[in-house]
Each structure stands twice: as C-alpha cells, then as structure tokens.
Amino acid sequence: MKRCFYVLMFLFTFIVASQCAEASMEDKTAYDFTFQKLRENAPLPLSDFEGKVLLIVNTASQCGFTPQYDGLEKLYNTYKDRGLVVIGVPSNDFGGQEPGTSDEIAHFCKINYGVTFPMTKKEVVSGAHAHPFYIWAKQTLGFGTAPKWNFHKYLIDRHGKLIDYFNSTTSPESDRVKKAIEKALAEK
C-alpha cells in the first residue's frame, strides 16, 4: 500500500511538472531562444533580431533540397532592408545529409551559394533531443508542423510570434512564402 502511494505521488508530480513545462513553452516567443553562431564560439540569441521578421530554416549540404540555399539568399537580399532575416540551422537529422564541420559547412555555403545570412552551429531539430526552439515550434503550431526533412521553414513575426511554416518541398521563392513574408513585413 505504501509503495502504491509513492508510485501515485511520483506519477502525479511527473504529470504536473510536464504540464507546467508545456505551459511555460507556450508563453515563450522566438526571442527566448539562443543558438550558437556557425563559425564563432559565440551565442546567437534570436532576441538580437527583435523587431525583424525571421525565416528559420534547417539546412543540409548533401540534400536534394540543398539548391534552396540559392533561393534563401535571394529572399534575404530582396527583403533584408525591409526587416527580414533568414537564419540557417544546419542539421544532420535527416539522411545524414549534413556530416560536415562548422568550417566545412560555412565554406560550402559561401563557395556554392554565396550565403551571407546568419548560420548557426549544427543542431538537432527533430525528436526528443531537438533544440528548444524546435520543441517550442512544434508545441506552438502542432505536431504536424515539425520538420520532417531538411529545408523546413518557420516564419516568425516582428514580435517573436511563430506565424507560419513551410515544408521542405515549398521553395523559398514560391508565391506562398513571399506573400507570407510580405504580409509579416507590412505589420508593425
């Protein structure tokens, strides 16, 4: 009987703690999360981009969608003066398609696609060990909105609110992406 009581208390505590953690994630904005810069041993807090529209994309160098780097760079150059920041988050989660080191990733992106937008160190973006930003994004928009492959895109408004997502198959230069970015840029 005493053992049963302790088991029940443990389960109750676990459930309450889980619900509190989930509730606290829902109260967050993108500005509550920090990545690490790709080539520097320095933090890249998303709060540095407060007031900007963010497009956060998990990337990979050896993927069929890798040419999307070109479209992401074009988007960044087209809209950066109006307040868009594209942030690339290299990940080796899907098909082992980002095996490189930070220096190799940076070199590949610069030489092949002329990438000038900010890039983070390689991160886990799916599953239980995902970077906290990706856990928050999945909890905010729902399970079906989590990355299922490389080049999944999240759109964040000027207030740090997650407002949309785009699957890997959606080109960065698609009308859907451009219209969503323009709408977010127009709102203050």
How is the secondary structure organized here?
Layout: H1 2-26, E1 34-36, E2 43-45, E3 53-59, H2 68-79, E4 84-90, H3 102-113, H4 132-141, E5 153-156, E6 162-166, H5 175-186
Parallel strand pairs: 3-4
Antiparallel strand pairs: 1-2, 3-5, 5-6
What this model shows, in words?
With 188 residues, this protein is of the alpha+beta class. The chain has one domain (29-186): Glutaredoxin, CATH 3.40.30.10. The protein contains 5 helices and 6 strands. It has helices at residues 2-26, 68-79, 102-113, 132-141, 175-186; strands at residues 34-36, 43-45, 53-59, 84-90, 153-156, 162-166. The strands form 2 sheets. A 4-stranded mixed beta sheet has the order 4-3-5-6, sandwiched between helices. It has a two-stranded antiparallel ribbon with strand order 1-2. The N and C termini lie far apart (60 Å). Residues 4-23 have low confidence and may be disordered.
Q: Main traits of this protein?
A:
single chain; 188 residues; alpha+beta; Glutaredoxin; 15% strand
